[in-house]
Q: What sequence folds into this?
């Protein structure tokens, strides 16, 4: 079979072959860890529903948003609408492209589920916490004070807390939506593969840092420093995570919850830095790039302000994000195969 035929039939193998094998290996590691230590494996539910339901629904929604405007742009007559939808869908969503998107979502799902479960296993496998070291490091950076106290004094604890809470919690929506948009709307399929693969590497590298320096974070070891903050969606999330942690520690087999507390490093920062760096490298419109860089800065600020993370967790998150982008570029061929990127771009023809 010719190279042209291979490119048309199996783009997912070029773009997601290495990431899929990597995430499957990560999943096997998680399953082996669970079996060896007698720990249950859970599908981590978010507030938008289980990831295996949430991700496909978001993809379908983005596909609809992609197809519908193109259909109406052709101004079909009432009896021609269904036929026009079929034509647009067929031209936009070829089987090779659908296969690549499926492989990308599978890679993300495997990495995410393995990450969440290995994070949940953490207190059973690494029971010595390093918070005392990180607290001392924080105070050294802040000249003897708690960094959160400095921020509360400088920025206040009223409207600032509300704004930063919205920014922090919006991450929970940003990740699945950006994932779907990258795979569905990108005119260059290799760009979407690059971003999705970078997210996968973030989960993998982030898990490694959790085990390197197991820690809870300032909000759970110095709670008094955050007593003046108002009740927000962020504080509710912190309480919920702590309750889930206690339930898992009491009996991991008696709850469907997962333990989701780990401070070093900040994956909120690493994921947002990944998105901003990717937007910069692929030259997205300048307003998008500026918004993402602002989002990165405010996310880093919010993590310390609310006590999710220590100061050192933020640059560690930046390092994970940068390394993930580079590893994903290697895995998807962005660094070595410009000709193939042009071929992948043709899989998303304009209707």
A:
């Amino acid at each position: 079979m010719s190279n042209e035929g291979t490119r048309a039939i199996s783009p997912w193998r070029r773009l997601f072959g290495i990431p899929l094998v990597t995430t499957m290996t990560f999943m096997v590691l998680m399953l082996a860890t669970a079996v060896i230590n007698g720990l249950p494996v859970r599908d981590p539910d978010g507030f938008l529903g289980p990831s295996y339901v949430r991700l496909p629904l978001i993809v379908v929604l983005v596909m609809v948003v992609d197809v519908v405007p193109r259909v109406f742009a052709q101004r079909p007559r009432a009896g021609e609408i269904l036929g026009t939808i079929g034509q647009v869908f067929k031209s936009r969503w070829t089987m090779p492209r659908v296969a690549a998107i499926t492989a990308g979502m599978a890679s993300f799902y495997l990495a995410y589920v393995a990450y969440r479960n290995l994070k949940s296993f953490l207190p059973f496998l690494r029971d010595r916490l390093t918070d005392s070291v990180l607290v001392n490091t924080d105070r050294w950076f802040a000249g003897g004070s708690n960094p959160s106290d400095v921020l509360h004094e400088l920025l206040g604890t009223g409207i600032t807390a509300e704004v930063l809470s919205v920014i922090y919690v919006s991450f929970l929506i940003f990740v699945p939506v950006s994932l779907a948009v990258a795979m569905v709307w990108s005119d260059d399929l290799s760009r979407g593969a690059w971003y999705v693969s970078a997210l996968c590497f973030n989960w993998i590298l982030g898990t490694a840092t959790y085990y390197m320096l197991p820690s809870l974070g300032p909000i759970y070891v110095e709670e008094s420093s955050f007593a003046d903050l108002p009740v927000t969606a962020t504080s509710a999330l912190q309480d919920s995570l702590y309750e889930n942690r206690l339930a898992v520690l009491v009996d991991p087999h008696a709850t469907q919850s997962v333990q989701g507390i780990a401070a070093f490093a900040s994956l909120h920062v690493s994921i947002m830095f990944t998105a901003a760096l990717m937007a910069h490298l692929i030259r997205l419109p300048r307003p998008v790039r500026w918004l993402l860089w602002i989002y990165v800065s405010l996310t880093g600020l919010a993590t310390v302000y609310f006590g999710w993370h220590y100061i050192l967790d933020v640059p560690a998150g930046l390092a994970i994000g940068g390394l993930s982008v580079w590893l994903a570029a290697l895995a998807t061929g962005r660094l070595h195969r410009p000709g193939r990127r042009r071929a992948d771009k043709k899989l998303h023809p304009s209707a």
